[in-house]
Design goal:
Two copies of one chain form a homodimer. Chain A is built from 13 helices and twelve strands. The first copy, chain A, is α/β, with parallel strands linked by helices and about 300 residues long. In chain A, strand 2, helix 2 and strand 3 form a beta-alpha-beta unit. In chain A, helix 1 packs across helix 12.
């Protein structure tokens, strides 16, 4: 079975969610080999070591990549447009040239069935595969089309399968930065808007109900499928639940029905990660591997 | 950490549910040592081998015990009162004399947090610890009190921690059989009614919201706790969910909210059990261990 190359890009505030996400991947694809790439800026060494220890324990490769500040010298960066928002679109430039494909996941996703079918999806000449949230009304899609001047669906950027070679050929860093500079003030969800405005017609549509299920929209999915996509169907078929939007299952008062599954995974992750630290043969950690910085392309590459 | 001695008593139709239950125990108590005892009558050898292989893979001891027919020579046995209904109450007579304590679980339970706190509960001179379902109305409890002539709560027999030595001293096989014979026709849930009528005042009450949560009664629990026992609280604190009643989450049309968690565990169990068969070093199985029958007390004891 092929190794899945997994990409996350986040800061240390999302470490708990990353633990939940990785736990869910591990439990739902028990035989799957995974190589994890973490794009970050000043992630604490202790946290990287934790992730490294866990990855070793479960047999995953782990490559933390500290993105160099110099990459953003000419980028419009502000509180509203932090540099992290560019990471996933610049990932093809940042990741090692030898990588051909990567699956990007937001840290508010939960994997509840094997990732393999998604990983093996034929990209058929597209830059990305991504899903539009069909639970939203047509009106919302039309507003986004007009707002961004596109004629395709408004794709969610939380789950993206990327053809890295094609991206390297077609995505120009300066074009990204110019777009943001020229549309400052108009972008609602900056990275997602940029994705759709610049590359919307280069995206292979994925079935959101399978690979980017908006966890708030159970009733819409059920209705649009004439009752087929009930809870049992979702548990059996959906691969990635996406807890998008302002309400989050790790915060108090989350009301949507799949929150309990996320909250159960928080418990599972807590126990599984805690036990890693007591594994014989995992510790002592190789601190150099987790924290030292070798040289990759324009970024620091610690492996 | 002490080994938890776990007891199940079921026929082969419940093998899928046993797999789910064991998977849930393994994932939620990753470091816990467990010895599993299965009381059965003519469980197929192939199924015993499957359980044996899985137990070896995860480090559990497994003791299938075929209960001898001769034990029921003088028992009232019929379609309505199958011999299996006596298994949990006769377990103290059937299990090896060296065992002091066992935790019985129904196959429609799901363990979602560590069992250790329950296992270590001081039985304080009682025969059993068990929970009454507090989500039921007082009226139901009073009807059961009158019906069975007891003055205690009506305890659910799906989760029972047993002091085996005290049970061996106080539970008489003939008394059980006589009670069933004399009350034939009045018993609604035979084994549970017998437990309550004969031993209701020898049971230490457990908190059902923690150890025998009736998965149908979310709203009652929430109401009785003034909103404390919300979904997040249940995921963090409840140890055993009990999918009791006629509706079952493994059947079509289950409507209650924790069904999705059970259905997710069905997927997890499917993958984890399937992979056991490909584990190096687990196969070939020791067929003698799983199927041969040594001599235990009045029953056949294959270990």
């Amino acid at each position: 079975m092929d190794t899945i190359h997994l990409l996350v890009a986040l800061d240390q505030r999302y470490l708990p969610q990353l633990k939940v996400l990785l736990t869910s991947i591990r439990l739902n694809s028990p035989k799957q080999r995974v190589a994890l790439y973490l794009l970050h800026n000043r992630f604490p060494c202790a946290a990287l070591r934790q992730i490294d220890a866990w990855c070793r324990a479960v047999g995953y490769d782990f490559s933390p990549i500290q993105v160099e500040d110099s990459l953003f010298e000419h980028a419009p960066v502000s509180e509203q447009y932090p540099r992290e928002m560019y990471y996933r679109l610049l990932a093809p430039q940042i990741l090692p040239d030898s990588m051909e494909r990567v699956l990007y996941l937001d840290p508010d996703t939960l994997v509840i069935n094997p990732l393999q079918t998604l990983w093996e999806r034929n990209l058929d000449g597209h830059l990305f595969a991504a899903a539009a949230h069909t639970g939203k009304t047509e009106l919302v899609h039309n507003v986004n089309r007009i707002r961004l001047g596109t004629d395709c669906d408004y794709f969610n950027s939380g789950v993206m399968l990327m053809d890295l070679n094609r991206c390297r050929a077609e995505i120009q860093t300066e074009e990204l930065f110019r777009f943001v500079r020229e549309h400052a003030g108009e972008l609602v969800l900056p990275d997602q808007d940029v994705l759709n405005a610049l590359y919307g017609n280069r995206i292979l549509p994925l079935e959101d109900v399978l690979f980017n299920y908006d966890a708030r929209d159970y009733s819409s999915y059920l209705l649009q499928s004439s009752g087929l996509y009930n809870v049992k169907w979702v548990m059996e078929h959906t691969v990635i639940l996406h807890f998008c939007g302002r309400a989050k299952p790790w915060k108090a008062g989350y009301m949507y029905r799949f929150g309990l599954l996320y909250q159960h995974y928080e418990q599972l992750a807590g126990r599984i990660w805690e036990n890693v630290n007591s594994f014989e043969g995992v510790l002592p950690l190789n601190e150099e591997r987790a924290c030292a910085c070798g040289k990759g392309k324009s970024t620091e590459n610690p492996i």
